[in-house]
From TrEMBL:
Gene3D superfamilies: HUPs (3.40.50.620). This is tRNA-cytidine(32) 2-sulfurtransferase. It comes from the Bacteria. Pathway: tRNA modification. Residues 52-216 form the tRNA(Ile)-lysidine/2-thiocytidine synthase N-terminal domain. Belongs to the TtcA family. Keywords: 4Fe-4S, ATP-binding, Cytoplasm, Iron, Iron-sulfur, Magnesium, Metal-binding, Nucleotide-binding, RNA-binding, Transferase, tRNA processing, tRNA-binding. It catalyses: cytidine(32) in tRNA + S-sulfanyl-L-cysteinyl-[cysteine desulfurase] + AH2 + ATP = 2-thiocytidine(32) in tRNA + L-cysteinyl-[cysteine desulfurase] + A + AMP + diphosphate + H(+). Its main location: cytoplasm. Transmembrane segments: none annotated. It comes from Pseudoxanthomonas japonensis.
Length: 303
């Protein structure tokens, strides 16, 4: 009786990767990011002659990419401006303190590390198992704003990208019943700081691809152990599904955020609906009379 041996599994050979093609694609991506960041800076007047820009560097892909692209644009920009990378070391357990200084020294960027133990504050105030993100964000923002004021920074650059802007818009609409979002440029509540978001036109997927190609030393964002915000997670899941089913939908929403038509919405504070079609001499409507059901004044005259 002969023994039938199983055939060996076929060897799957991946097609050879042409390094020239890879370099070409990476060059195209870098050019696209420079164009999008430059366009955002021009559209919103983010950077002016003589600005001292504080580039907030967290160690994530977004802030690394923002700094890298701004450094490239700085060399050929029509105005002169200063870039300083600033990181807030919140004393989270296990945070690799050496990573950012070593990277910034290697690329020759002026930088400063703010050391402030906000982690202990958040851990003490927030009950175990609850998300720390909201309080942590407020403390971090306060620290960065204080440092910016003390050191004469004229602009504060944050690494939020196009998808962040769209997600925030949906968060506010779905969970807070308001049409507002995360603007590319804003004035802080105390009126002392101008915050800019140079990546406002850039897709998150492009940032991830660029960060991988550049080999940035990414620092994990889960060191504090806090769970992701549930509402934002729901919105992100919805956006990902939309993009799979209808590619380009998120870009359409992002463009819509820059094309607002107040007369086509329902906010009387933004558009004067009362005056629209109002006849000369006619009294403006009285909400109390309409809600209370008071009879028309002419009814007394007819009686």
């Amino acid at each position: 009786m002969s023994t039938v041996l199983p055939l060996p599994d076929p060897v799957l050979r991946r097609p050879a990767v042409d390094p020239r093609r890879v370099a070409h694609e990476q060059g195209k991506l870098a050019k696209r990011l420079r164009r999008q960041v430059g366009q955002a800076i021009a559209d919103f007047g983010m950077i002016e002659e003589g600005d001292k820009v504080m580039v907030c560097l967290s160690g994530g892909k977004d802030s690394y990419t923002m700094l890298d692209i701004l450094l490239q644009l700085q060399k050929k920009a029509p105005v002169r401006f200063e870039l300083v990378a600033v990181n807030l070391d919140q004393k989270q357990p296990g945070f690799p303190e050496h990573v950012l200084p070593e990277y910034l020294e290697r690329v020759g960027v002026p930088f400063h590390i703010i050391e402030q133990d906000t982690y202990s504050v958040v851990s003490r105030v927030i009950p175990e198992g609850k998300t720390m993100c909201s309080l942590c964000s407020r403390l971090r923002r306060g620290s960065l704003y204080s440092y910016a004021e003390e050191n004469g920074f004229t602009k504060i650059a944050l690494g939020h990208h196009r998808d962040d802007l769209v997600a925030t818009f949906f968060l506010n609409m779905f969970f807070h019943a308001k049409l507002s979002g995360m603007p590319p440029k804003l004035l802080s509540d105390n009126g002392k700081h101008v915050v800019i978001r140079p990546l406002a036109y850039v897709r998150e997927d492009d940032i991830a691809e660029y960060a991988e190609a550049r080999g940035f030393p990414i620092i994990p964002c889960n060191l504090c152990g806090s769970q992701e915000n549930l509402q934002r997670k729901q919105v992100k899941k919805m956006m990902d599904a939309w993009e799979r089913e209808t590619p380009g939908r998120i870009e359409t929403v992002a463009r819509a955020l820059g094309d607002i038509r107040p007369s086509q919405l329902s906010d009387p504070n933004l558009f004067d609906f009362l005056s629209l079609g109002h006849r000369d001499g006619a009294a403006l409507p009285n909400a109390h009379a309409w809600l209370a059901g008071e009879p028309h004044a002419m009814a007394d005259d007819d009686a």
